[in-house]
Amino acid sequence: MRRFIAPPNSVTGNRVTLRNSQARHVAVVLRLRPGDRVVVLDGTGREFEVELESIAAEEVIGRIVSAREGRRPVLHLALLQGVPKGAKMDDVIRMGTEVGVAEFVPFLSERTVAEGRQRVGRWLRIATEAAKQCRRSDVPVVHEPMPFHEALEKVSGYDRILVLWEGEQSRSIAHALTNAHRASRAAVIVGPEGGLQSREVEEATRRGAIPVTLGPLILRTETAGIVAIAMVLYELTLRTR
Question: What are residue 186's DSSP bridge partners?
Fold first, then answer.
């Protein structure tokens, strides 16, 4: 069945209402008819099987046949990403959503070139489509780009905060996550092109972050975060301890 993500206020009682582009997609692109069934996600983790009742390009109304908790990451994982140049952040959002990132915090650091202003709407649309593709029932939070110190405040109190830094030569992600198997919230910090300044790493460390290495090779900023996220998810949710 086709899958749609709609705002939580689209669900009222046992009815679901799709409007605007969602309604046009149902009525004009897919040409669905009353009686057809679709899956509607409200973006918070709930998943509904819906039988369509009335269909128009402006509004589609359906009856909820069944409701259940959908698939969502078991770990709240935040990615603090230094805003990269061009469309690289698009790839970070898409792949991060597919892997299981719950929250994207784009930040501006001393070596940031692109600011990413007014692109959050695009990033959120990419996250929404990626969530549909990988059958997640929730949509990650995507913040406006912010200064580095504000990004650090967003993850204050997290169980583990890792900062990728080429100056760290020995501490791996696995080592940094020792005894963290009960962690429910974790964060990964990735600098923009050129990486973070040493004083920025020091600031992150003062706030509880642990510098880690991904090995001897230097990865692109849009690659490094996804690799690190995958490693964290493996260590905290998949690895048999």
Answer: 77, 160
Taking the chain (241 residues) in runs of 10, the rounded mean pLDDT of each run is: 83 90 90 92 83 92 88 87 93 95 94 81 92 85 95 95 93 91 91 92 95 91 95 86 53
Q: Tokens 């983790």 sit at which residue?
A: 45
Burial 138-176 (b: 16+ CB within 10 A, else e): bbbebbebbebeebbebbeebbbbbbbbbebeeeebeeb
Pull the structure tokens for residue 191: 């600098």
Residue type (1 letter), 24: R
What kind and span of H or E run contains 148?
A: helix 148-154
- What DSSP letter does each residue of 176-213 carry, written as one string? HTTT-TT-SEEEEEE--TT---HHHHHHHHHTT-EEE-
Distance, in Å, from the CA atom of 211 to the CA atom of 202, rounded to the nearest integer, reads 9
The set of residues, in sequence order, having a beta carbon less than 8 Å from that of 11 and lying 6+ positions away, is: 40, 42, 46, 48, 64
pLDDT at 240: 59
Domains defined along the chain, listed by start: 3-69 (2.40.240.20), 76-238 (3.40.1280.10)
